[in-house]
Amino acid sequence: MTIVSSGPWLTPEAHARLVWELAALRRPTADDRFGGDDEIALNAHRQSRIRQIEDLLRGAVVGEDPPDDGIAEPGMVLTVEYDDGGTETFLLGTRDEAGHGALEVYSPDSPLGRALHGAKPGDRREYRVPSGDAVRVTLLGAEPYGRHRGSHV
Fold this sequence. Notes:
The chain is an alpha/beta fold and 153 residues long. It has helices spanning 12-26, 37-57, 111-116, 145-151, and strands spanning 9-10, 61-62, 76-82, 87-92, 104-106, 124-128, 134-144. The chain folds into 2 domains: 9-62; 76-151, Transcription elongation factor, GreA/GreB, C-terminal domain (Chitinase A, domain 3, Roll), CATH 3.10.50. A 5-stranded mixed sheet has the order 5-4-3-7-6. Strands 1-2 form a two-stranded parallel sheet. GO terms for molecular function: translation elongation factor activity.
């Protein structure tokens, strides 16, 4: 199935967690009745998180796998090899995807995510880390999250 939205890609589990968290954040709390500095700061933080979740859920692509064409894009599980010979497998998706066990999640907006977006197996890409050093990485494979999850259950 082809994804037509340009919103963030979420697994159904992450979507459900975010919907639950949003509902919990919107519930009034006993702290709302007081108004001391701590409560005001907590409320401001809560309102910020509510806006963040609402923005994330707005237009989100939930559980729709991208095409199984081996191209790196959100919703794909990527396996890469670094120049030092180390390999890593991770989900290219929204950082709110926590809870995938050993499967790390990298944002498409991270330096590694931006470098790999659109790569095909065998493509070698480079990105800069905060120190300014260049890191080279080769895409070994990319498969839709649903297919990866089904083969590793």
